[in-house]
Amino acid sequence: RKKLLMVWSCVVSQRVWHGTAKATHLKLNCSWSVLGRLLLVKCGPQLTGSQSDGLTEVPKNIPSDTKFLDLQNNRITELKENDFRGLTNLYALSVRNNKISKVHPKTFAPLKRMQKLYFSKNLMSTIPKNLPASLVELRIHENRIKKVAAGAFSGLGNMNCIEMGANPIQNSGFEPGAFKGLRLNFLRISDAKLTGVPKDLPDSLHELHLDHNQIQAVELEDLSRYKNLYRLGLGFNHIRNIEQSSLLYLPRLRELHLDNNRLTHVPQDLPNMKYLQVVYLHSNNISQVGVDDFCPRGFGMKKAFYNGISLFENPVNYWEVQPATFRCVGDRFAIQFGNYKK
């Protein structure tokens, strides 16, 4: 239960501290507000009513007891060594949507308690060095990262969630040992330039999202490390083939996204995936569905009922599929067929 809650917080937490407090104007283009015992500070031109182009550097004299510091939507180009001096109580930092391309190696040294860092929509080409050991969540999507060096996340054993999609990184950009030491529950590398499932990702993962890439196939041992996966996202790729038995390395998988690919048949492993409940196969090239494509034969093997199967936008007619095909589906409304339009 604790691990599942951590994954959920990874998905929704960015919304929590943005809309909670009412701004009160201060100098330095910053506003502060109090939520319970927490001090929230937000800095940017939108708070003063001015038409300026935003801050170009981190403001000075930010209160030392600040818990949440919001610097998003400015024009900051660099994080310097002493930008966060004295902010030892900081819990979350957002520098989202700036122009940051450089971070001093000691920038984050004072932030001993920081758990959440939102760094998306900047100009970083690498992962910032010496991130705080306390960090739990890192969002660094929509940057210019092409390489993740070995040891890039060294010392970050508390990290639970990394969102690094929409970076122009290829499979070769991940050096061996890039994720060494991480015990992640959630990882997203969507909208990148991957042509295959990356190697040596953390084996602790519960959720892996590789949607919107150029992955061609899933080979036999591509997923062999990820026995703890609950959810796998491979939608919007170029997948034509999923090698038989490759999905059986995922004994706990509950949700599988294979929509918007180039599959011509239902993956052969589905009947043997005991806990699989949701599978997206819409917008492929599947022209026929066999009676045993989803459910185990006979009654000897126990399997969780499906809550959702999507097959719409495939060149298969629903009236050609035998009703017994969906004998292990909990509700007929869980099957989404629709009409195929070429």
Automatic annotation (TrEMBL):
Compartments, record wording: Secreted, Extracellular space, Extracellular matrix
Cystine pairings recorded for this chain: C295-C328
Alphabetized InterPro entries for the sequence: Leu-rich_rpt, Leu-rich_rpt_typical-subtyp, LRR_dom_sf, SLRP, SLRP_I_decor/aspor/byglycan
Source species, domain of life: Eukaryota
GO cellular component entries: extracellular space
Keywords: Disulfide bond, Extracellular matrix, Glycoprotein, Leucine-rich repeat, Proteoglycan, Repeat, Secreted
Known function: May be involved in collagen fiber assembly.
Similarity field: Belongs to the small leucine-rich proteoglycan (SLRP) family. SLRP class I subfamily.
Protein name as annotated: Biglycan
Provenance organism: Nothobranchius furzeri (Turquoise killifish)
Species classification: Eukaryota, Metazoa, Chordata, Craniata, Vertebrata
